[in-house]
Write a structure and sequence with these properties.
The chain is α/β, with parallel strands linked by helices. It contains five helices and seven strands, in the order βαβββαβαβααβ. The chain has a seven-stranded parallel β-sheet, with helices on both faces. It is globular.
Length: 232
Amino acid sequence: MNKKIVVIGASSGIGFGLASRLSADDKIYAYARTPGKLEELSNVVYRALDVTENKLDLGELPEVIDGLVYCPGTINLKPFRRLTDQDFLNDFIVNVNGAVKVIQNLYSRLRKSEHASIVLFSTVAATVGMNFHSSIAASKGAVEGLVKSLAAEFASRIRVNAVAPSLSDTPLAASLLSNDTKKEHSSKMHPLQRIGNIDDQVNAVLFLLGHQSSWITGQILHVDGGLSAIKS
């Protein structure tokens, strides 16, 4: 085994795709509320975890952890006037506070690695103003601030970056892509004329975890079909 990597939110979507790819060469400690198909993968240790709990128990782990990927996220799209205080708080708890608690828990183990890397998830909506995204954009904007602050504080021992997807075909986005009309409309929004998929995001995470990105930290990698940078 080359590395020991913790994946939070690993039972479905991008998290499961990442655990599947990584487990070919690395030892994966996969956390999620339910196992899904994780127990079918070799080199994967599954442990139950709900990131909304006040105190997280990650169980016994190796003294050295080489990578951490935090995948839990929310899609709570409502007009601003219909969003409650609790909506904003729930998004923050999952997207920001959960990541903070996990990083604090694993910091000493990550620091012992020679090439530690943390990867979080933002969203294109933190950069591009979109209708009905105020709650999720606010929490993911906080994630981007956290990435930059931790990248500065943890240099030169731990790199910290984030992937910022646009709409991708994952279980989390199922209601937004539930028929061909929605998929066609969403595809046409993007300069590359398609929606994203799990592999698009997994490939970006693998890059940020690997040696090829060893001189990259504090960055937000936009994997969004050009939506954040191009007006077509």
